[in-house]
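Hey,
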Amino acid sequence: MFLDCLLIRKSTTVASYPELYFFFLGGLLSTFLAYVLLFFKTKTSLHLMSLSALTLYTIGLSIHNQIQNINLIVFLVLMNGVVASSRLEMKAHTNKELIIGFFLGIVPQLLLLRFWL
């Protein structure tokens, strides 16, 4: 979280790269929420959290720039499934932890999407 804060404050600014700024801010919020959930003894899938955030960011970027990245979006959605399946197969997470991780990645990006879209 410290490195994400440093990146947001020093490297990526709202004026220069608003899309990246809000993407990293959403990532910071997701990471903070996953950290808070640890105090309630709730584990989340950080792999799925980051991949779902990237998927939603790519969809938003496609809308923002008015280009069709359909192949990339389909690939990322497919990779969400592959990552979730592999985490289940390796018995690293339960279904509940994967769902929490997925929504922790999506919800902050959705909330911040309106600021740069």
